[in-house]
Amino acid sequence: MQGLSGRVAFVTGAGRGIGAAAARALADAGAAVVLAARDAAAVAAGA
Question: Per the confidence metrics, is the pTM higher than 0.90?
């Protein structure tokens, strides 16, 4: 992924699977990431 510094990404389904992987990749690329999921504990465990 290209550098995403200064960008904001909103990821739904960020608690597991593809959503979690996408959120991690976006964060690694420099984006500020907002996470949404039905299970807040799953999101917190992945942080």
Answer: no
